[in-house]
Each structure stands twice: as structure tokens, then as C-alpha cells.
Write a structure and sequence with these properties.
Residues 1-20 form the signal peptide. This is Calcium-binding protein. Keywords: Signal. Helix content is 8%, strand content 44%. The chain has four helices and 23 strands. Strands 2, 4, 6, 7, 10, 12 and 13 form a seven-stranded mixed sheet that branches. Strands 14, 15, 16, 17 and 20 form a five-stranded antiparallel sheet that branches. The longest helix has 12 residues, at 33-44. The chain is elongated. The relative contact order is 0.16.
């Protein structure tokens, strides 16, 4: 099930962090972790608890002294996903906090997640399947390693191929039962969140082919180079033709290692590529796509043509 509709139905600056937890439910079928975090952050924001998620809204959470820094998502590289499957992107960061905050305590929740759109009303979000592992560097500094798990068939639409932002949160429950359906004293719960920690692009994986013919060919005769550029379609779960973009037809002379661009070719409505050149010397022909913000660069393996 895709989750974007759920995110769009929520509001308030806490939404992103509130949803940024594994979607497990309590053993007795009670509120999910998403509901619990949402309620905690709403309470910290001075709003009433999410209806039906937890017990009576009593008190206000106290602010934690927490700062996120050195956040790196996927080692600073774009996250590239095909139309289906599962992509795991590493997330590393440092958390500086007061000495009374123990990130490794069982009743302390910490995570860094991704969202697209505005912080108050995100259009979509991504999180890790598991909680991060945090290691103490000192009494007030931890380094944490987590993941963002991407399942395009469940999580993404084509419009999600853009720049996402990272946000982080810490909730110290202080032995309060987060799943309680009885009255919760929020004044015992510590909360902190921080936005704009990093930015990362999500891209739709691409593929390109080439066929140069005829082969062999007479010197001076015409070579036709055909191919197709396709892109992961997160709406449909398959690869589709990438229409209306340009790929470079490139040539590498036999015995050399460098390709040179001969001309640029625009793809058809189905991603098709086709153009002609004159045969001169033996060598390899390929199509090279330089990429866009939404799609990574890709080059076909060279197709050898023997010129006689």
C-alpha cells in the first residue's frame, strides 16, 4: 500500500517526524508507533493528542537539549531506484545532547528520516525498517548509523524523483508506556526534532541500448545507430520509454579508450533513438545519456563495427 495519501491527510510541523518510525503496531492491536510519535510531537507542539492514538492528553512534553549534525544520506550520492525492488540507503549522523539523554536506552526513540515537500505538510516521506544504532563518543555525543529503506512499488510515484530533505527527532519516554490507552502524563516525556539536516535526490533508474548496423560495412557507407532509452516508472512498476530527452551518439576508434560525441539525438515518444553516420574506421558506437535531476546518467556498452 502506498503511504502518500496518509501523509497528505496530516498537518502541523510535527507531521514528518511523527510518521518517521517503523509502522509496527502494539501487540494488542493498539496504536502504531506512527500514532504514538504523532501524539507526542503534537503534545509538544501544544496541540491535543491524535484522536484514538493514545490516552487522555495531559500535560506538555518538556524540550530535550538535542542537536543533529554531520548528517549524510547515502554517502552524499543520489538514491537511485528501479521500478520495483528494495533499495537500502545508509544514513549516518552525530547527535549532541545533554548528559541526561541516553540515546541507547530502550525507552528513547531516535531517527533521521526523509520527506518531500514542505515540513508542515510533506507530500511523502521515507524511513528505515529498523531503528538506528547509536554509539557513545562521550557523555554528550553519539554517532548513529541507520538506513532509509525504499520500496518504489509501495512508497514512490514519479513526482517523487526530486530533492528530499532530512529531519531528525528524539523522544525520551522516561518509562512512560507509549502504547498506553490510559491517561498519559506528557510532562514526563522529553521531545526534540530538527529540520533541514541534509538534502538528497531520489532518481528513477535508467537503461539504454544501441545497435549499429550493418556490420561489416564499406568505408563511406551509411551506418544506422538505433537504440532505446528507458526509465523506471514508479507509477506503473515497469520501465517505460524516456520521451523527449537527448542522448549522445558517441564513437571510440578501435585501439583507443576514449569516446567522442558525434551528435545528440532526441528520443521519440517511446524512448526510441535512431540516427545515421558515415563509416570511416573500425570502432565502437554507443548512446550516452548524461542524466537529469530526476534520472541518473547511463551509457550503453559499445557496439563494434568493422569497416572494410
Amino acid at each position: 500500500m502506498r503511504i502518500r495519501a496518509t501523509v497528505a491527510a496530516l498537518s502541523g510541523a510535527l507531521v514528518l517526524s511523527a510518521l518517521a518510525v517503523p509502522a509496527a503496531t502494539a501487540a494488542d492491536g493498539g496504536p502504531s508507533k506512527q500514532d504514538v510519535v504523532r501524539a507526542a510531537l503534537k503534545a509538544a507542539d501544544g496541540k491535543s493528542a491524535y484522536t484514538g492514538s493514545t490516552g487522555t492528553d495531559t500535560g506538555t512534553p518538556y524540550p530535550l537539549s538535542v542537536t543533529f549534525s554531520n548528517v549524510k544520506v547515502n554517502s552524499g550520492k543520489p538514491i537511485v531506484a528501479g521500478p520495483t525492488g528494495h533499495v537500502v540507503a545508509p544514513v549516518t549522523y552525530t547527535v549532541t545532547h545533554s548528559a541526561d539523554v541516553d540515546l541507547r536506552a530502550a525507552d528513547t526513540w531516535v531517527d533521521v528520516t526523509l520527506y518531500r515537500g514542505s515540513y508542515d505538510e510533506p507530500a511523502n516521506f521515507l524511513e528505515g525498517d529498523n531503528w538506528p544504532v547509536c554509539t557513545a563518543v562521550s557523555a554528550t555525543v553519539d554517532t548513529c548509523k541507520g538506513t532509509v529503506d525504499v520500496r518504489p512499488a509501495e512508497d514512490l510515484y514519479n513526482v517523487d524523483a526530486t530533492t528530499w530533505k532530512a529531519t531528525g527527532y528524539v523522544i525520551d519516554w522516561n518509562d512512560v508506556d507509549p502504547y498506553s490507552t490510559d491517561e498519559i502524563d506528557w510532562s514526563k516525556v522529553g521531545v526534540a526534532d530538527q529540520d533541514n539536516l541534509a538534502a538528497v535526490r531520489l532518481q528513477r533508474r535508467t537503461a539504454v541500448t544501441v545497435n549499429a548496423s550493418p556490420e561489416p560495412v564499406r568505408k563511406g557507407a551509411t551506418i544506422t545507430a538505433t537504440g532505446r532509452l528507458t526509465i523506471a516508472n514508479w507509477n506503473t512498476g515497469v520501465y517505460s520509454g524516456y520521451a523527449g530527452v537527448y542522448a549522445q551518439l558517441q564513437f571510440r576508434k578501435a585501439g583507443t579508450t576514449t569516446y567522442s560525441t558525434v551528435k545528440s539525438v532526441k528520443t521519440t515518444s517511446t524512448g526510441g533513438l535512431s540516427t545515421t553516420v558515415k563509416a570511416s574506421v573500425d570502432g565502437y558506437w554507443r548512446y550516452n545519456f548524461v542524466g537529469t535531476n530526476a534520472a541518473p546518467a547511463i551509457a550503453a556498452a559499445g557496439d563494434y563495427v568493422d569497416v572494410r
